[in-house]
Structures are given as structure tokens and as C-alpha cells.
Amino acid sequence: MKALLKKLCSPLLVSFEKGEGEYVYKDSHRKILIIMGLLFLAISLASLFLAIKFTEAGGIIPIVVFLGVGLVCEIVGFLGSDRAVSKIWKNK
Questions:
Q1: Distance between CA atoms of 9 and 5, rounded to whole angstroms?
Q2: What is the widest separation between alpha-carbon atoms in the chain?
Q3: Taking the model in full, what pTM does it have?
Q4: For 55-64, which contacts have Cβ atoms below 8 Å and span 24 or more sequence positions?
Q5: What totals of helices (H) and strands (E) does the chain contain, helices first?
Q6: For residues 81 and 15, what is the distance between their CA atoms, to the nearest angstrom?
Q7: Domain range holding 34?
Q8: What is the Cα–Cα distance from 54 to 33, expressed in whole angstroms?
Q9: Half-sphere exposure of 9 (CA within 13 A, CB side)
Q10: What is the distance of C-alpha 72 from the center of its chain?
Q11: Which of 4, 6, 73, 81 has the most crowded CB, counting CB atoms within 10 A?
Q12: Is 39 part of a structural domain of the chain?
């Protein structure tokens, strides 16, 4: 299952996994990235709820932004290599 998901998300993962040389990676970086992704997804769901409740079309922008950032964090956190996680944190 993980191999299939990696194949589906490969266009995103390739951009984070490319590069050569040393990188700094700690296991806590991956955990924090996953937690941060969950928080962004929660903000996206809260924005969706409020946009529906108040029937505001302007709520689409934060929904899309927070959903996109949350999904990228979760994909890289769960499926990405150590280099990809390090690249998100800009550790070289």
C-alpha cells in the first residue's frame, strides 16, 4: 500500500527528495511535520465549517491554502525520505 501511495505522490515527493550532499535529519523533525500537517488540516476543516455556516464564498481561499499545506506536510511526513523531511525544514 505504501509503495502505491509513493507512486501516486511521486511528482510531489521528487521535488523534495532531489539533491546531493549532506543533510541534517532528526526523528523529531518528522513527528513535528506530521503534527503540523494535522493542525493545518484542522484549520482547513474549521474554515470549511465556518464558510458553510455563514455562507461566505471568501472562505474558499483559506480552505484551499490550509488544505494544500496540510496535505503536503502529511504526504512528506508519512511517505517522504529523510532528505525530503530535511528539505522542508531547510536543514543542509
A1: 6
A2: 50
A3: 0.89
A4: none
A5: 5, 0
A6: 12
A7: 23-88
A8: 31
A9: 21
A10: 2
A11: 73
A12: yes
Q: Identify whether 2 is part of a domain.
A: no
Q: Which three cell numbers stand for residue 16?
A: 523534495
Instruction: Please count the residues of the chain.
Output: 92
Contact (Cβ atoms closer than 8 angstroms) between residue 74 and residue 14: no
Does residue 11 lie in a domain region? no
Amino acid letter, residue 74: E
All three cell numbers of 55, joined, read: 455562507
CB of 48 closer than 8 Å to CB of 63: yes
Which 3 state secondary structure label does DSSP give 92?
Answer: coil
Q: How many domains does the chain have?
A: 1
Residue range 9-66, pLDDT digits in tens: 999 999 998 888 788 888 899 999 999 999 999 999 999 999 999 998 888 999 999 9
